[in-house]
Amino acid sequence: MKTIRQKFGEKIRELRRAQGLSQEELAFRAGVHRNYLGGIERGERNPALENIVALAKALAVDPSELFRFERNKLLKK
Fold it and tell me: Hey, how many other C-beta atoms are within 10 angstroms of the C-beta on 10?
């Protein structure tokens, strides 16, 4: 079973790719280091609330959208 960090990271990656953004571009827009963003996407980092909000703004979504996980989609991977 995937952890909340893994699910969150997959959601960030999904939204980033859907917008055609590189990790470097999203990291720049959110004001975080690209290595930190990579760690979030891999489920290795536990981002602070301020960084979650910054990522949501950079992706032009409400922060709550980052926690909407599709159960079936995640189970198939």
Answer: 19
Q: What is this structure's pTM? A: 0.88
DSSP 64: G
3-class secondary-structure state, position 38: helix
Which pLDDT belongs to residue 44?
98
- Residue of 76, 34, 72 lying closest to 55 (CA atoms): 34
Q: Which residue, chain included where needed, has tokens 């909407």?
A: 68
Read off the pLDDT of each residue in 51-72 and give the average, rounded to a whole number.
93
Q: Indicate the CATH number of 4-76 among 2.40.160.20, 1.20.1560.10, 1.10.260.40, 3.90.320.10.
A: 1.10.260.40
Comparing CA positions, the residue from 50, 51, 29, 21 lying closest to residue 39 is 51
